């Protein structure tokens, strides 16, 4: 849970809040229109997620060998932390360089998360997975709020000339704060979390990993419940991720000033923490699937409301709606999936989970970007995402309730 606390600073400051505002301001200073800067950010997110989606199952299959999960996790973690700190040295108006470095940070962040998510099977049992996964997200929202508040304080102080800094320099300091926070609070994860479930090392591990991956691709059709869930997840999580990543960009397009956006996003983190934990508790009472439907329903309302947004007040309301469900829907998706997979091949199967999640994250930003450019309206782009939630919800209806038995293995899920 401390790693959720650590890396969530990146999710808010780099993915959602300060970096998108910083990038859009720099791009517009370089002569890029507001709509195009939003579209370019969407295309960049799509490229980064495509790269990681292609790598995840291969790396995950290799990382299932004894002792390798932690090493792969550490490798991507270091890429993420170092490249995030480097954002501070890129010139403000070098928008293309910023996007390239942002792509590298995204790969490091999301790559580490593939292996971090797979550690869920090593640290708890199936009865506690929903609650623990949700608690992790809850801790993450609080952990991200603290450095985010510090960054807002520095930026506002620079804006009001309480500090001898430009707003640009204050924003760049926030990137360094993010990297330091992420790095320091990841130490307990690196030191103490161990890989419990694994495949024994063997000769020619890379070759055999590719063979095992190929066999899994052939066999995965046997997991009917798993495949239906992944297909539903592919659509609805795409909408969730796109709204999170593009929120400040279309908030800026609505004319909401940077200070208001930062305050809105800060309070979103505070509200999201207890709701993420609440989702985990309610899942134990009403099942994870029912709570996933609650989350999908909230996001459908978000898409409809977004189409009619005209003011900062509307954006406040929308942000609070998102806060009630963004952590819960992600946490329960992670734990639902973890219950279905063989534990000794968790990295391999979370690689597939990542494929569905990341390829979905290619489609959503592209849908938003293309719609925004065609219509000339960012709010119409957000409204187009309703299609993803509807399709995901319909497919989820065909996912039967699962009977998860003790242990792991191919026959653990009955359909």
Automatic annotation (TrEMBL):
SUPFAM superfamilies: MFS general substrate transporter (SSF103473). It is a multi-pass membrane protein. Residues 225-415 form the Major facilitator superfamily (MFS) profile domain. The chain crosses the membrane at residues 39-60, 72-90, 96-116, 137-156, 162-185, 226-246, 258-279, 291-309, 315-337, 349-370, 382-400. InterPro entries: Atg22-like, ATG22/LtaA_families, MFS_dom, MFS_trans_sf. PROSITE patterns: MFS (PS50850). It is found in: Cell membrane. PANTHER family: AUTOPHAGY-RELATED PROTEIN 22. This is MFS transporter. It comes from Alkalicoccobacillus gibsonii.
């Amino acid at each position: 849970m401390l790693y959720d606390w650590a890396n969530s600073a990146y999710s808010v400051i780099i993915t959602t809040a300060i970096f998108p505002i910083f990038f859009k301001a720099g791009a517009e200073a370089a002569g890029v229109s507001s709509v195009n800067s939003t579209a370019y950010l969407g295309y960049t997110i799509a490229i980064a997620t495509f790269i990681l989606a292609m790598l995840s199952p291969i790396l995950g299959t290799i990382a299932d060998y004894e002792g390798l999960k932690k090493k792969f996790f550490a490798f991507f973690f270091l890429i993420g932390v170092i490249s995030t700190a480097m954002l501070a040295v890129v010139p403000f108006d070098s928008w293309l360089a910023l996007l390239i470095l942002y792509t590298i940070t995204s790969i490091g962040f999301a790559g580490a998360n593939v292996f971090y998510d797979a550690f869920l099977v090593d640290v708890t049992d199936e009865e506690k997975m929903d609650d623990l996964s949700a608690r992790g997200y809850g801790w993450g929202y609080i952990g991200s709020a603290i450095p985010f508040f510090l960054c807002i304080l520095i930026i506002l102080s620079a804006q009001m000339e309480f500090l001898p800094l430009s707003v640009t320099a204050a924003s760049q300091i926030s990137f360094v704060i993010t990297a330091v926070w992420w790095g320091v609070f990841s130490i307990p994860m690196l030191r103490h979390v161990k890989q419990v479930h694994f495949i024994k090392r063997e000769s020619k591990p890379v070759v055999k990993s590719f063979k095992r991956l190929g066999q899994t691709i052939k066999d995965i059709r046997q997991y009917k419940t798993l495949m239906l869930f992944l297909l539903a997840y592919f659509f609805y999580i795409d909408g969730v991720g796109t709204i999170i990543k593009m929120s400040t960009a279309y908030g800026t397009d609505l004319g909401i000033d940077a200070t208001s956006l930062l305050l809105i996003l800060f309070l979103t983190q505070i509200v999201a923490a207890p709701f993420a934990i609440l989702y985990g508790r309610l899942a134990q009472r009403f099942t994870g699937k029912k709570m996933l439907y609650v989350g999908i329903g909230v996001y459908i309302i978000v898409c409809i409301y977004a189409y009619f947004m005209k003011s900062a007040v509307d954006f406040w309301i929308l942000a609070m709606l998102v806060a009630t469900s963004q952590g819960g829907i992600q946490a329960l998706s992670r734990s639902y999936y973890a219950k279905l997979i063989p534990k000794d091949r968790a990295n391999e199967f979370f690689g597939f989970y990542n494929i569905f999640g990341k390829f979905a994250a290619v489609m959503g930003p592209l849908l938003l970007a293309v719609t925004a450019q065609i219509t000339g309206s960012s709010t119409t782009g957000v409204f187009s995402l309703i299609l993803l939630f509807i399709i995901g919800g319909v497919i989820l209806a065909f996912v039967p309730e699962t009977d998860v038995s003790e242990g792991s293995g191919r026959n653990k899920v009955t359909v």
